Amino acid sequence: MNAIRPIAVKLDQDTRDRLKRLADAKDRSTHWMLREAVAQFVDREEKR
Prior knowledge:
Elements: H1 13-25, H2 30-47
């Protein structure tokens, strides 16, 4: 069984603010938005 482990990502304040605004607009958490963004990036890169 694979354990889910946290990972830290350092973001500048402007990016954090933009992420928060997007998350609020979509009624999602910033955590969800980051996980979705990473999943989409990995999927896209694996297809290359």
